[in-house]
Write a structure and sequence with these properties.
Length: 358
């Protein structure tokens, strides 16, 4: 008896969810963007000395709000990039999608985002400004007639604000509102400066890697207009701001495990560069690269903060479990080099012991 092919197909809702996941390019931002944002939530809770577990349902709401926004951004950006991608000979995920399907996704995201914006406004006008500000920044980035993406430095600012600055400021302010604690201005300023530096460096990395395609398509990004050298210099300046503000966050947070995590990350980065000959880059893409500090923000920093919270509030272990479930695969893939690192260290120790006659 032959199997019915239709019986092997997944249900309609599963196929729709998978299609939406692909359209949204969720694999490109889920762990890379959201783990550092949640790290800021953990750091803020640590800074004001409040447990995370009572905030857990609201942190999931924050994650939902960010997911809706990220889906809108990804779909809108790909849809408005179709002509430029075709001119550059690049594949576009939405090239085969109908305009009606894309419009339905965008309208659904916009409706959900507006509803969440109303909730945030009732919580605090500043929270709503930071949440909706990210939507406005990315809409201006992608949509004509302004389409800031092709307007050099304005494109840098719009992408940085939408992807990093506003989400990080949103996280600090919304956690403080939910916890009922006023956040000192120096903490908010340090988080904003860190997000600004990190965001600028990451969009410059994208522009440096895409410069040839952008030039071919006539997309006047900052790097296309001012050149790769100017892009690298600006990225180096952004890194100075990023490191300085990160140091201030660590100093204000007074979380020893975050320093330990940074030391462990630095040791692994040294091995990557000196032993494994893996290029560590600030912004200029290279084959086999490791982008400086991004892995710390995605893996080490949030885990260190959560472990510190668990030490102070053992019930926050449930938040650590949930974080591991959400980002565990990404974390495991990034932590696997520690096996090779321990092998290198063990080999050197054995050689030293051998020379000492032990």
């Amino acid at each position: 008896m032959m199997n019915d092919p239709a019986a092997a197909e997944p249900p309609v809702h599963q196929r729709a969810a998978y299609t939406l996941w692909q359209m949204a390019r969720a694999s490109e931002w889920w762990a890379y963007k959201f783990a550092p944002i949640l790290a800021t939530a953990y750091a803020t809770a640590n800074f004001v000395r409040v447990p995370l577990l009572p905030l857990l349902p609201r942190l999931l709401l924050l994650l939902l709000a960010l997911t809706v926004g990220a889906t809108y951004v990804s779909v809108l950006n790909d849809w408005t990039d179709r002509a430029d991608d075709a001119a550059a000979g690049k594949a576009n995920r939405l090239a085969g999608q109908s305009g009606r399907a894309v419009l339905a996704v965008l309208a659904g995201c916009a409706g959900a985002g507006l509803a969440l914006g109303v909730y945030f406004w009732q919580l605090s006008p500043w929270v709503a400004v930071f949440y909706l500000g990210a939507w406005v920044a990315y809409s201006l980035y992608s949509l004509p007639p302004l389409r800031l993406k092709v307007r050099s430095g304005w494109g840098l600012l719009a992408d940085t604000a939408g992807a990093h600055l506003f989400p990080q400021l949103l996280t600090v302010t919304v956690v403080s509102q939910w916890a009922g604690v006023e956040i000192p201005g120096r903490w908010l300023a340090a988080a904003g400066a860190w997000a600004l530096g990190c965001g600028l460096r990451n969009i410059l990395w994208h522009q440096l890697g895409d410069a040839a395609n952008d030039a071919q398509a006539g997309v006047t990004t900052f790097v296309v207009r001012w050149g790769a050298r100017a892009g690298r210099r600006l990225a180096a300046s952004a890194l100075v701001v990023e490191i300085g503000s990160l140091g201030l966050l660590l100093c204000l947070g007074q979380q020893p495990l975050a320093y330990l995590a940074l030391a462990l990350y630095a040791a692994l980065t040294y091995l990557r560069a000196r032993v494994w000959q893996q290029p560590v880059v600030v912004a200029q893409p290279q084959p086999g690269q490791h982008i400086l500090l991004n892995e710390y923000y995605e893996i080490y920093y949030p885990l260190a903060l959560l472990l510190g919270q668990v030490w102070r509030y053992p019930s926050d272990g449930w938040v650590l479990v949930l974080h591991s479930a959400l980002f565990g695969l990404h974390s495991w893939q990034r932590l696997r080099p520690w096996g090779a690192a321990l092998a290198v260290v063990g080999s050197k120790v054995r050689r030293l012991l051998h020379r000492a006659g032990v």
